[in-house]
Write a structure and sequence with these properties.
By secondary structure, chain A is mainly β. The termini of chain A are far apart. In chain A, strand 9 and strand 10 form a beta hairpin. The radius of gyration of chain A is 13 Å and the shape is globular. In chain A, the strands form 2 sheets. In chain A, strands 2, 4, 5, 6, 9, 10 and 11 form a 7-stranded mixed sheet that branches. In chain A, strands 1-3-8-7 form a 4-stranded antiparallel sheet, with no helix packed on it. Helices cover 0% and strands 48% of the residues of chain B. The radius of gyration of chain B is 13 Å and the shape is globular. Chain B is an all-beta fold. In chain B, a hairpin with a 3-residue loop joins strand 5 and strand 6. At the A-B interface, strand 5 and strand 10 of A face strand 4 and strand 5 of B.
Chain lengths: 116, 107
């Protein structure tokens, strides 16, 4: 069965960076793009970008351009999302989500807390 | 960016009711529209893709319709487990924007 398992919760100080991982299993990793979506406390869903695990440049939402980097490691079927210059309003749950029929599978989420 | 607007923002209903949630896009998106369900402290669950196609395992009481700019999610015969927040998302063009969500509560 398809599984997306994300790394654990993080606490970071303002200005720092965070790198969240998402390990995929149960399907051929390179055949499906992967989204990253975040959700601030009590707020809605926000699309951050998408990466093609088989290669090519990721596509990022404009508001994260210059701060976000999405990468992948095909040897471990893992995608990564790194967000830099963290601010308090980056506190959120970050999800990876497989781009099957739109999004079909979601990771469990990773809480990133930005606090001094 | 394409703006997605859902209505209502919240909705109270009873078990057994039929409810409809509307999602409107700021420009035409053909049928590139998905619906998701999210319960508190849980990851979203994918319900519908391409406006009207149920994801595998989703009960048939859920249905979607629409194309272009206007879309609906209908739940017939509400069950206790259906009380949640629902989001639409367009995947016609980047960035793939979401609606603000509709919270479905028990009356």
């Amino acid at each position: 069965q398809v599984q997306l398992v994300q790394s654990g919760a993080e606490v970071k100080k303002p200005g720092a960076s965070v790198k969240v991982s998402c390990r995929a299993s149960g399907y051929t990793f390179i055949r499906y793009y992967m989204h990253w979506v975040r959700q601030a406390p009590g707020q809605g869903l926000e699309w951050m970008g998408i990466i093609n695990p088989s290669g090519g440049s990721p596509t990022y939402a404009q508001r994260f351009q210059g701060r976000v980097t999405m990468t992948r490691d095909t040897s471990t079927s893992t995608v990564y999302m790194e967000l830099s210059s963290l601010r308090s309003d980056d506190t959120a749950v970050y999800y990876c989500a497989r781009a099957g029929t739109s999004v079909d599978y979601w990771g469990q989420g990773t809480l990133v807390t930005v606090s001094s | 960016d394409i703006q997605m607007t859902q209505s209502p923002s919240s909705l109270s209903a009873s078990v057994g009711d039929r409810v409809t949630i509307v999602c409107r896009a700021s420009q035409g998106i053909s049928s590139w529209l998905a619906w998701y369900q999210q319960k508190p402290e849980k990851a979203p669950k994918s319900l519908i893709y391409a406006a009207s196609n149920l994801q595998s395992g989703v009960p048939s009481r859920f249905s979607g319709s629409g194309s272009g700019t206007d879309f609906t999610l209908t739940i017939t015969s509400l069950q206790p487990e259906d009380f949640a927040t629902y989001y639409c998302q367009q995947y016609y063009t980047y960035p793939y924007t979401f609606g603000q969500g509709t919270k479905l509560e028990i009356k």
